[in-house]
Hints:
Layout: H1 2-7, H2 10-21, H3 41-48, H4 70-82, H5 87-101, E1 104-105, E2 110-111, H6 120-127, H7 132-141
Antiparallel strand pairs: 1-2
Helix pairs in contact: 4-5
Amino acid sequence: MNDVKESLDYYSILEEMAEVIGRKNIIVRPYEIGQFKNEDIIEDFLDLIGLSLNNEFILPDKSYNPSMSNAALEMKRYMNLSCIATQKDMNDCFYDILMRDGIEDSSEKQCVHFKNLISFSQRQEFMKNYEDIKKIAKDFLNRENGILLYERDN
């Protein structure tokens, strides 16, 4: 667990970067839909680099990187443990099963199997292990309250 905790010590990583390139040259953004500009990661990124989304941009029709439900994640974990096929074959099979078994939600253009991986309260409990996250919110996002994530459970 110690290696995992160290690999998730983003504050130390950001501090090392700041020493080399300067804090003013680092942009930190929380990965939370409600904090993206207009709740859109593409529009958020474009805004950061001084561009605005317009009809000249060709955007994908659906999300190609959706989150998985806990059940789907557990199925994937068991498939990875089996190691009877190549990783690519297992991934192809896994997503084929999910998409075939799931019902596409046309309003969201995604398979219903793809949902939030963990709830807000689970995220908060996990984040207690990483109190330095508050320092990131304060030092890199200028949030005196130290809050990084705002979204709540539905």
